[in-house]
Specification:
This protein is α+β, with helices and mostly antiparallel strands. The chain has a single domain, classed as Sandwich (Jelly Rolls), CATH 2.60.120.10. The chain is built from seven helices and 21 strands. The N and C termini lie far apart (about 40 Å).
């Protein structure tokens, strides 16, 4: 069955059976770059990791620089790229399927990194955003970690200086789009070095207990064998973190703020994923779990296609290519988000 991606603002369909993204009235099959399990091992939660026989398993599909022919010159002139990414449902061992995660490059001469904005077209998403104390050395720990629960039509802005990972906690495919500067090149190395993000999104609270982590990291030197658990409780409450007595890893707190609960109208949204700390990080702050925040001045409004919004008002998206000019707006966004 083909799912029409009406929220995209483009003639796009997702064909779940053959795993194909279809474009235009003739439903042309677009060719993606495919991220496979074997490429992800360095950033996975190590306890219960799948065997090597699954290395060719496709986890997500990336479609780059999509646009209608009549809009191509506009995208090129403004230096903006529109992409679509599709994540499989399910889990990788004990962890929900996720992207590899990346940081953003610095805008030359600006002193800050490029931002990015995501839009959920189908399914559910958890966007884990993390800001390191020092972008040049993530081993020094993180200053801030935010998880945004998002559903169809929601927009999630990744501000400058944040890296991020997308998690699919649902039973269906997650289809999302993003707008970003065309000169953007993802920076993967810091997350590979740290064995993933500051927290892992697991399928259950039990998966993050010490017994699941006793054999963790057997073939990955430096990966902690015991993971402190910071389970994501029902939003509106908080689960206090604690230090693992064997390795001193601070799990931090899970703080639920705003209206993250029930964004997709289900208990599953409220209950999972369950987040556990990555002990490779020297310092971890509490994990704040929130709902999406609209940004009218950037035309980031729920249920309004970001593709259509860009075509109608390209000047509203200058923040993607000239982030230093919008420092105050990014600060206000983070304040409103939290």
């Amino acid at each position: 069955m083909n799912t029409e991606l009406l929220l995209s603002g483009l003639p796009l369909w997702w064909a779940a059976g053959p795993r194909e993204l279809l474009y235009g009235p003739e439903k042309q099959v677009l060719v993606p770059a495919v991220r496979r399990l074997g490429e992800m091992r360095a950033v996975l939660y190590p306890a219960g990791e799948p065997g090597r026989a699954e290395d060719e398993r496709a986890l997500y599909y990336m479609y780059r620089a999509l646009n209608q022919p009549e809009h191509r010159a506009l995208f090129q002139e403004k230096g903006i790229r529109y992409d679509v990414t599709v994540l499989e449902p399910g889990s990788i061992g004990l962890e929900y399927i996720k992207t590899a995660g990346h940081y953003h490059p610095f805008k030359p001469g600006s002193g800050c990194t490029y931002p990015e904005v995501y839009e959920v077209l189908h399914g559910r998403a958890c966007y884990l955003m993390q800001k390191p104390h020092n972008l040049q050395d993530p081993r020094q720990g993180l200053a801030q970690v935010i998880v945004v629960d998002a559903g169809p039509g929601d927009k999630v802005l990744i501000p400058p200086d944040f890296g991020h990972i997308t998690i699919n906690p649902g039973h269906d495919f997650l289809v999302m789009s993003n707008l970003v500067a065309a000169a953007f090149q993802s920076v993967y190395e810091p997350l590979v070095e740290m064995g993933g993000g500051g927290y892992f999104g697991l399928v259950s609270a039990a998966a993050g207990r010490g017994d699941a982590g006793e054999t963790a990291g057997a073939d990955r030197p430096g990966a902690g064998a015991n993971f402190s658990s910071a389970a994501g409780a029902v939003p509106g409450s908080s689960a206090a973190g604690h230090a693992d007595p064997q390795n001193g890893t601070a799990a931090g707190d899970v703080e639920h703020r705003g209206s993250a609960a029930g964004r997709a109208g289900s208990e599953e949204t409220a209950a999972g994923p369950f987040f556990v700390a990555n002990p490779r990080y020297a310092a971890l702050p509490p994990l704040a779990r929130v709902g999406p925040q609209e940004v009218p001045q950037f035309s980031l409004l729920k249920d309004i296609s970001q593709y259509s919004a860009f075509v109608a008002n390209p000047g509203h998206f200058e923040f993607l290519t000239n982030p230093r000019d919008f420092t105050r707006e990014f600060e206000k966004y983070l304040q409103a988000l939290l």
